Amino acid sequence: MTEKPHPPDEPVEELAEEAVEQNPDQQTRRETFELELMEEERSEEGEEVELEEEAREDRPAGRGTR
Questions:
Q1: Is 53 in contact with 29 (CB distance < 8 Å)?
Q2: Greater confidence, 58 or 20?
Q3: Which of 57, 52, 12 is nearest to 36 (CA)?
């Protein structure tokens, strides 16, 4: 499958969503996202973006009710 080029004004959040959809592994997904931003010379824009799975893993897990 050939990927189509991203428009230069595509929001970094959309690139992040694509990385999550295409890569089941968290590290591979982050690398894919960062590589895409580097290729588009937009690395700084992605510094604050959390990929979907990263955000979930950073939250404390609920331990039930008391």
A1: yes
A2: 20
A3: 12
In a domain, 29, yes or no: yes
Phi, psi of 18 (to 5 degrees): -65, -40
* Sequence letter at residue 34: E
0.70 surpassed by pTM: no
CA 14, distance to chain mean position in Å, is: 8
Distance CA 62, CA 15 (A): 30
Residue 16 in any domain: the answer is yes
How many domains are contained in the chain? 1
- Residue-wise pLDDT for 38-63, tens only, equals 998 998 888 888 887 665 565 455 54
Task: Confirm if 21 and 3 have CB atoms less than 8 A apart.
Answer: no
